[in-house]
Amino acid sequence: AKARGKNTYRFFSRELNEAATDRLLIENQLREAIREQQFLMYYQPKIDIQDDTLVGYEALIRWLRPDNTLVPPARFIPVAESTGLIVKIGEWIILESCRFLARQHSRGYAVSLSINLSARQFNDNRLPTMIEQIIQRTGVDPSYLVFEITESMLMGDTDAAIKQLNQLKRLGVSLSIDDFGTGYSSLNYLKRFPVDELKIDRSFVKDIPEDRNDMDIVSAIIAMAQKMQLRVVAEGVESEAQVDFLKQNACYVVQGYYYSMPLAEQELSHLTFTIKT
Ligand code: C2E
Ligand code: CA
Ligand code: CA
Ligand code: CA
Questions:
Q1: Which of 67, 116, 123, 277 has the fewest CB atoms found within 10 Å of its own CB?
Q2: What's the pTM?
Q3: Does the model's ipTM exceed the 0.95 cut?
Q4: Which residues form a coiled coil (predicted)?
Q5: Around Cβ 254, how many Cβ atoms within 10 Å?
Q6: How many whole angstroms separate alpha carbon 5 and alpha carbon 18?
Q7: Distance from the CA of 190 to the center of ligand 4, in angstroms?
Q8: Could you give the 3-state DSSP secondary structure of residue 126?
Q9: CA distance 245 to 10
Q10: Is residue 96 lining ligand 1, measured as CB closer than 6 Å?
Q11: Could you tell me if 65 and 71 are in contact, meaning their C-beta atoms sit under 8 angstroms apart?
């Protein structure tokens, strides 16, 4: 038993060690990525399924390594978050995204743009001023900007969160709760937060139309959003059956591979949707 205990210990300590080295490695590479400008923004279309028009995009970051590998955000956002590098990267994301939106508007496209905020970014009291300066610098109309936050960011210090949300709202932007349904927000909480939109998490959408439970959850979220006069968006839509279900339940704005993957700006011109003007 003793020997096994020792082995177990060695196994865990090696695992931990590898994870720590991995993080350190990614952290150093992230610093280099910032210096060498290895980040790119991709944009995923948001479609109004009533008439199949393109109404906006979600900005999603990508890391293109010098060896041409594309690193997905799930691999590096958590490291950027825990090291604080996200503040710098996050500022770049907002600037780059607003420039993109300004270019879309200058072509006459009346599209909105959703930008993800991480917890650390959201908790930074300099965030509203930073966004305000970027809005001024790029000349973008803030009413077309949406900032996505998750329920967990609102749950800690709720008074501070409400204050921050109000500061952001004063800029004229809208606010969306991402991955809705996966956190802990109660109806009571939701009413206190000045948000404009709920984004139904992909985990509830992916098994429609097979999973009756998920269908009930999704229709309940949509009904609740309507009751609270919030916009509702479904993410991760991959099939026609899912589109039909959402349409029947009056959720008209969707995002997902069924319509388009996230794309680089140059690739957006290949899309064939009618764009709102
Ligand atoms: P998220 O905000 O929930 O973004 C949606 C994710 O689902 C994206 O993954 C998107 O590519 C993917 N997706 C969209 N449609 C479908 C679909 O039909 N099927 C499937 N299977 N997936 C779909 P991505 O780009 O890898 O991003 C993952 C997460 O990383 C994001 O989840 C978000 O939490 C974070 N992230 C991405 N970009 C940013 C960013 O610019 N800033 C911050 N703070 N976080 C970001
Ligand atoms: Ca999102
Ligand atoms: Ca999401
Ligand atoms: Ca999600």
A1: 67
A2: 0.93
A3: yes
A4: none
A5: 24
A6: 20
A7: 19
A8: coil
A9: 51
A10: no
A11: yes
